[in-house]
Amino acid sequence: DNITNRIVYNIEVYSLEEILKEFDKDSVEFIIATGEPVARKSIYNKLKDFSLNCISIIDQNFKLSSSSSSSIEEGTIVHTGAVITCNVHVGKGCFINKGVVIGHDVTLGDFCVISPNATISGDVEIGENCYIGSGAVISNGVTIGRDSIIGMGAVVLEDVKPESVMVGNPAKLLRKNESKKVF
């Protein structure tokens, strides 16, 4: 709510208070541009409390399997070069970065952040508020519990309990994610 720069990339920036005061709610659309899953959720819920519209931004170079029965919920950002195959469900408020590959029959919970060049194999379930680091690989059939962090380059071969921080190849538990935050 505290605005320090009024113009960002030639776009005027308004505080939430200014938006609610000066604009018709039906004409306001927002995106969430942070890589912190819990912050994404908090911002989303706050803006939805004011009945503001959360939109998705999906890059034109995004690849969705032609025979796909996949779905992407509102407020999700999908970057260039991302590939989503068949029967994938992407929850609301997710952030799928550049070069991410998501295999068949995958469920991403709400507010997940998938960093550049991560690979999620088939039949994987990722709980809400998870963060998958750059270049991480999630093996077939794995479940990752909510509020977990998978470190850069980690190779996850087994299920991950909720609120876990996993690193390495093969991925091992570093610590519990007690704060439920990445940064």
Report the end-to-end length measured between terminal Cα atoms. Answer: 20 Å
As laid out across the biggest beta sheet, the strand order is: 5-8-11-14-17-20-22-23
Net shape: globular
CATH architecture call of the largest domain: 3 Solenoid
Order of SSEs: EEHEHEEEEEEEEEEEEEEEEEEEE
Compute the average pLDDT.
92
The largest sheet is: 8 strands, mixed
Percent helix range: 10-25%
Number of helices: 2
CATH topology of the largest domain: UDP N-Acetylglucosamine Acyltransferase, domain 1
Low-confidence stretches: none
| Number of beta strands | 23
Strand composition percent: 25-35%
Radius of gyration: 17 Å
Which CATH C-level class of the largest domain is it?
Mainly Beta
Number of domains: 2
Key phrases:
2 helices; mainly beta; 6-stranded parallel β-sheet; globular
List the topology elements.
Layout: E1 7-8, E2 11-12, H1 16-22, E3 29-30, H2 37-49, E4 53-54, E5 57-58, E6 63-64, E7 71-72, E8 77-78, E9 83-84, E10 89-90, E11 95-96, E12 101-102, E13 107-108, E14 113-114, E15 119-120, E16 125-126, E17 131-132, E18 137-138, E19 143-144, E20 149-150, E21 155-156, E22 164-167, E23 172-176
Parallel strand pairs: 3-4, 5-8, 6-9, 7-10, 8-11, 9-12, 10-13, 11-14, 12-15, 13-16, 14-17, 15-18, 16-19, 17-20, 18-21, 20-22
Antiparallel strand pairs: 1-2, 22-23
